[in-house]
Amino acid sequence: MAHETPGMPHETPGEIPEGTLLDHHCHGVLRTDPDLGAFEAFLTEADAPAAPGTSFFDTQLGFAVRRWCPPLLGLEPHSSPERYLARRRELGAVEATRLLLGGSGIGGYLMDTGLPGDLTTPGELAELSGAPVHEIVRLELLAERVANTARDADRFLAELAAAIRSAATQAVGFKSVAAYRHGLDLAPEPPALADVRDAAAKWLKKRPAGGRLTDPVLLRHLLWSAVHTRLPLQLHTGFGDPDLRLQRCDPLLLTDFIRASRASGTPLILLHGYPYHRNAAYLAHIYPHVYADMGLTLSHTGARAGAVLAEMLELTPFGKLLFSTDAYGLPELYVVGARLFREGLDELLAAWTASGAWSRGDAARVERLIAADNSRRVYGI
Fold first, then answer.
1. Domain boundaries, the chain
2. How would you list the strands of the sheet with 290-293, edge to edge?
3. What is the rounded distance in angstroms from the CA atom of residue 281 to the CA atom of residue 302?
């Protein structure tokens, strides 16, 4: 497969079949077979190996992979990691990925291409899955690429504005990792143009080659630039790798920004959330342009995913909760995210309909909303 230029806005057109899932936040998968250590590294948000004598397979996510993925490759559920990876090698990376994606029940993807590594592009993921893939543009990466060639602050800001406008004509949304780069405790209002220019000049002057954008003024400028496009804006909240400080990733820290952006009508999607998922549910409940997401959270909570999903459904309006996997690197993570969502929601709805709290018709309608219809509406797909 030809490699596309990563991070360039584009999409692969196509219809998303009824009854399938629409994964509104995910990433590319590896093009090659990982060894045991590399595979395990995708089962954790930690940046170091498991403790001596232990394995990241011994986690909720690791057990979920062994429960749901082996049957798609012709093995028994709960096969050992060694047997599973041997089978994967027998099939080869391409065939294993095709089988896993084909068995995930996902019929469409919105892909954030902002992560590094030898990962599939949206076009490659579409070819492997047989499903349409649309791109979500990561704001910070876009700004860093512009900075790589900008000669001064004025040129940087002009080219950044042009790049965001161009992306907005082709992408279905934007994504910000300000939670990683600074934290969500940013000043809520749009920064003054003079402050943005001064911040850009200082950043460009001291920035090493390929340096990351962490300046809070420029991060705010990116957020508001995206808001002005009216395209959905995904915001990382809650847990992630050690690069963030969890206490600064509570979505409640965004409350003033949410209030300030309300008049724009721009949809704000609060990704992940855990362990602040109830806070995200509250914000989606209160503010008309705020939505909640479950990606990453359900995969890592595994057998407890249904309990976490029930907590998200306590306050989140049913038309404002969006399914995603946040899968990255391993096609197995698409499978696990989808299966845990289906299993958890089916168990909840069965209990609520059996008790008479919900009707079967309402339960079926809510399942369709969360699985795909909410994302279709929010992203205009």
1. 21-379
2. 21-26, 106-112, 133-138, 173-176, 233-237, 268-272, 290-293, 321-322
3. 20
Quick one: which H or E segment has residue 165?
A: helix 153-170
Write down the residue that tokens 């996997």 correspond to. 325
The answer to whether 248 touches 185, Cβ cutoff 8 Å, is yes
Q: pLDDT tens digits for 279-334?
A: 999 999 999 999 999 999 999 999 999 999 999 999 999 999 999 999 999 999 99
CATH number of 21-379: 3.20.20.140
Return the closest-CA partner of residue 327 out of 87, 30, 1, 73.
Answer: 30
Which single residue is written with the structure tokens 């309300």? Answer: 262
Which positions ≥6 away from 196 have C-beta within 8 Å? 157, 217, 218, 221
Report whether 114 contacts 7 (CB < 8 A).
yes
Contacts of 310 (CB under 8 A, 6+ apart): 344, 348
From CA 314, how far away is CA 319, in angstroms rounded?
13
Residue 84: half-sphere exposure toward Cβ, Cα within 13 Å: 23
154: β partners? none
At 306, is the secondary structure helix, strand, or coil? helix
Q: Peptide bond preceding 190: is omega within 30 degrees of 0, i.e. cis?
A: no
pTM over the 0.85 mark: yes
Choose among 60, 18, 52, 86: nearest CA to 301: 60
Mean predicted lDDT score pLDDT of the chain: 95
DSSP 1-29: -PPP-TT---B---PPPTTSEEEEEE--B
Q: Hunting for tokens 């049957």 — which residue is that?
A: 71
Chain position carrying tokens 């899955």? 129
Give the Cα separation of 341 and 22 in Å (integer): 12
**Which SS3 state, helix, strand or coil, does residue 134 take?**
strand
7-30 pLDDT, tens digit per residue, is 444 455 567 787 899 999 999 999
Q: What is d(CA 367, CA 56) in angstroms, rounded to the nearest whole number?
A: 32
Bridge partners, residue 166, by sequence: none
Q: Give Cβ neighbours of residue 189 (< 8 Å, ≥ 6 apart).
A: 220, 260
